[in-house]
Specification:
Layout (H helix, E strand, L loop, with lengths): L3 E2 L1 H12 L2 H6 L3 H16 L2 E2 H6 L5 H20 L10 E3 L7 E8 L8 E3 L3 E3 L2 E3 L2 H12 L3 E8 L2 E2 L8 E2 H4 L3 H16 L6 H29 L6 H35 L6 H22 L11 H11 L2 H10 L4 H17 L5 H12 L1
Parallel strand pairs: 1-9, 3-10
Antiparallel strand pairs: 2-3, 4-7, 4-8, 5-6
Helix pairs in contact: 1-3, 5-8, 8-9, 9-10, 9-12, 10-11, 10-12, 13-15, 14-15
Length: 369
């Protein structure tokens, strides 16, 4: 799954408030901030109400159906799950290109140490978004020159963490219905709860909720269709099945990433090995730990070759999915109760920022059993 936070608009607002100091603290050039803010402003200014786009006679029928799905998923997130949606996903913005932005990650070749950037509001993050692909590649070259290996991926959606009413973008509508519903729910999680400086927890939480809620969303739509006498439910059944398959793959990928991470971390931690020996042996470790997954899913685009930045990008979204599922089941699959408990984790972390939110969550679950 590809997501990126729209941190640059929030950042620009902070700059306007606190002046040039924020530029120094954020370690980002004014040019980057201004360019990104300009691109984001075009997206926000170009928004149209989804209801109006649906009624527009020039809107293709497939696009209408997907926009109706956006509104349905948004209502589900707000009304059934208790997520904070505000006025997000009530508007649509055609950005006129196939990819919204490019996200850069960089890690050491012989360790999982990530290069990080700091931004106001969200804190330290292990990635940076670019609206121009060449800008991302230029910065990747600079990082590789000082010992990092990089990974660049495209993304089609963003969240302003509730600061603005995020539109659904034309890039998102190019995706499948399952992916679209997942995106709406995923981004709504970010607008509801965010633990500053803990990207892996935030992303894995949203990833789990997006997968699980999307499954339930399409299962309930299928059930509603079947309850109607004589209804043709083939399309709803297919989407329900696809959402189940998508979640199953993500859980398998999560387990594979965790095993691969542990194996490579053990290799990287062997002080008796030279840098060159670690680089040579990591190829063997990677192959042993990914062969079964890639054989089962030959179309899988991830994990084609060893790259610590890609592994960490996947780990950011796939950490402890089973832990979140355990809490979800402990709360009788009640989303408002689940979110309440996650907010308790956030409150505990705010009281002691040194605490790992994953550990806090695990302690909470154990305390309830």
């Amino acid at each position: 799954m590809d997501y990126i936070y729209s941190i640059v608009i929030v950042k620009l607002l902070c700059i306007l408030i606190v002046g040039a100091t924020a530029l120094v603290l954020s370690s980002c050039s004014p040019g980057y901030v201004l360019q990104a803010a300009y691109e984001q402003s075009k997206i926000l200014v170009g928004r149209r109400q989804i209801d109006q786009v649906i009624l527009d006679s020039e809107t293709p029928e497939e696009e209408r159906e997907k926009l109706r799905l956006v509104l349905a998923a948004r209502s589900y997130a707000a009304d059934e799950m208790g997520l904070t949606t505000g006025r997000s996903f009530t508007t649509y913005s055609d950005i006129g290109k196939s990819t919204l932005a490019w996200v850069l990650l960089a890690a050491r070749r012989d360790s999982f140490a990530l290069h990080t950037w700091w931004f106001p509001i969200v804190g330290e993050v292990p990635y940076k978004g670019f609206f121009d692909e060449q800008d991302a590649r230029d910065e990747a070259v600079e990082l590789e020159a000082v010992g990092y290996e990089s990974w660049i991926r495209g993304t089609d959606a963003f969240s302003t963490l509730g600061w603005f009413n995020d539109p659904v973008l034309s890039t998102t509508l190019k995706s499948s219905p399952v992916r679209i519903a997942n995106t709406v729910i995923h981004e709504s999680v970010h607008s509801t709860v965010w633990i500053k400086g803990n990207v892996a927890f935030n992303e894995s939480l949203a990833h789990f909720v997006g997968l699980t809620a999307t499954e339930r969303f399409f299962a309930e739509r299928l059930a509603a269709c079947l309850a109607k006498q004589g209804g043709d439910c083939a399309a709803q059944r297919e989407l329900a099945q696809l959402s189940v398959k998508d979640a199953a793959l993500q859980y398998e990928l999560s387990a594979a990433i965790e095993d691969l991470y542990q194996a490579l971390e053990g290799l990287y931690g062997q002080n008796s090995l030279s840098f060159e020996e670690k680089i040579a042996q990591r190829v063997v470790v990677f192959s042993e730990n990914t062969a079964a997954l890639r054989t089962k899913y030959p179309q899988l685009q991830a994990l084609q070759h060893v790259n610590n930045a890609e592994i960490m990008q996947l780990k950011i979204y796939l950490t402890e999915l089973e832990l979140f599922r355990e809490l979800y089941e402990q709360e009788d699959k009640n989303w408002p109760h689940f979110i309440k408990r996650i907010n308790e984790v956030r409150s505990q972390h705010q009281e002691d920022p040194a605490q790992d939110p994953f550990k806090l969550l695990r302690n909470m679950i154990v305390g309830e059993t």
